[in-house]
Amino acid sequence: MLTVRKLFDGRTYYLDSFQRDYAWEIVQVEKLVDDLAAKFTAQWYETHLEEDTKLYDPYFLGSIIIYRQNGRIYLADGQQRVITLLLMLIRLGTLTEYRHDAGHLHAAVRLLMRGEDHGGQHFAVRVDRYAEFFDQLANDRPFTSDGVPADVRRLHEAAEHLLTRWPEDLKQDALPYFARWLLDRVSLVELDAGDATRGKEMFSAMNDRGKHLAPLDLLKNYLLADAPGDPYQLDLRWQHMVDKLHGPDRDAPLEFVRAVVRAKYVTPAADASQLLESAPHEWLHENAETIGQNRKRDGRVRLFTDVFEPLSRPYVAMLEATSQLRPGQEAIWYNTYHRIPRQFDLALAAAEPNEPEPSVLRKAELVARFLDLFVVTRGVRQLPYGPSELDELVSALLGRVRMTRTADELGHVLGEAAAGWYVHLVEMPELRYLQGGNRSFVLYLLARLTVWLAGGTGHSENVEHLLAVAQGRRPFEVEHLFTKSSGAGTYAAQATSATDFERMRSRLGGLVLLDGSDNASVGGLPLERKLASYLRSNVLAGSLHPDIYRSRGHKRFSTFIAEQGLTELFRPYDVGDPPEAVVNARGRLYRAMAERIWSPESLGLPLSSSTRSPVTAVGNDRGDGGRDVDDDAPRRRQRYNVTLKELIDAGLLRADERLVGRRDGQMFPATLTADGRIRTASGKIHRSLSAAAKAATGAPNPGDWRFWRVERTDDTLFATRARYLLSSGVGQNG
């Protein structure tokens, strides 16, 4: 049994390379201080003498394991407590320095904290990277965390918390009594393992008091314990890797290891079980034969030196791109905004360990764009894109991605996988803003559209700024073109219900992003009175103002939209334009913009001619005014050779389904017959959707698939047909 005094009296402790770093956090420090304080204060009275503390009940701190090597004492287990006790001694030294009633204690503590180096500069726990901090603490010098390793920062946090958690009574009158009791009545059991080999075995089998060995520490021991060569140098390299990973994110080191294992080694024969999450070293041990660790004597350490260490460098850059929008790595930030889990697995699967960092980052951006497209094409259909959906997608692609060598090869693999997703962009005009439901996604979509147009027309804007949260609110908010108060009268005059108006105004084409203060100030004003605010806010909202089309200062705007083939789709608002017509027109515009932002060419995900989806063929409006797909050339129409009867047979529509068409504020009901024809309100039956629409409205070309909407689902027949095409092989389930 060793008291704290005997533990430090003339003894210095060293840590071997297999030992973990200082890992205690505030909760462990609090528990130690609280337990000691409670045990002491329950016995101390002001009338006691200092000598009386010898009769106080003792406190047992548990056991430590040591071994001796080359005349030195090494800690195999218990180093967290020993280091924390050393911090307490250093704190006691500064607290007793100017106490006339504690001079003898001050001298004793100053000797104990130096261990065997009486009067020297070293401390009782000899770790090179801790020495400077111990010295700063002992001499009450300021500490700066800039550039210091994570474990040294934890030392500083522990020392600070020791002082703040220490009860005030124990800093005042009771301090000499508490210090004497701590030195002589608090004790530990010392177990001597004998030599380093036995010490390592006992280290692997034991846990520290109050904090189990962390998975990262156990992994380090597993990989490095039997390594040939200089273990100290390997330990330094490991620590350097961990420190770099700790910089962007405290949990990053362990998640990095898991990501590499998933990316490189998980197979049907070695699946990513819960064991990989809780204990990566055990997973590696169980799957050592499958992943080839046992083929060479140093197979385990090679996992560190040849795989983990080199891949950690580009991984740090990827992590940094999650917190700050960087040119060339924007999609990584976008996926972080959507809280996409494990977005780097495919990038690591494609990366070679010694590949130049720019090449790995190029692959990471391709993967990020691929995942962004996945999110967008599911979000427009209000389908989930969470962990289970991502896991399924990534797992299906891992094998093929691992076989790629270049960014171009990776782009082709991802492009082929995404080929069927583009068709869903045609559903964008039907997307409705549901507050509390899809707000985050709609904000993102509007931000991407806004920034794309701003960048093309020479304005500085970025998605991070538009989506930033400041003091609990967003500087930019979703703005409805037509508010309830401004549109109710007009809409009532057009004989449509308030429910229909609410649905119409919440569709994507009826929305823009607006500065939060402007959004609040324009409130329920009619659209024509909000246009000036729109023009000041951003180009996309400002495109509703007529001045943007005729001002000399907006020449770049006109040039850009002409280059993109969007001239006919951009239209200023004119008082008297029916709200629904405006929303429909803007919806077609947004869809066309999205087809350019998320095109295979823009994303770097090329399609072969055999895998091009219908939407990529018709996505280029070429200034055609946003005509329906069915009004395009016969070559395009033949790709959609789908009948209403097929949709009924597929279960997407029902016999006697009620349909509704809308035009100029009026509603036109119809019924779908069992054989796939349309019965209008007059009772006449039509084989053609366009013929039924013309008969119902009296207009020469009101539309067809987009004109008719299924009353039960509020989806257009166009969107219903797109889902059928996807399920029948034209596209894949994105």
From TrEMBL:
Ranges for region Disordered: 606-636
Annotated Pfam families: GmrSD_N, RAMA
Domain (GmrSD restriction endonucleases N-terminal) ranges: 5-224
Biased composition, class Basic and acidic residues, residue ranges: 621-635
RAMA domain segment(s): 631-725
Protein's name in the database: DUF262 domain-containing protein
Lineage: Bacteria, Bacillati, Actinomycetota, Actinomycetes, Frankiales
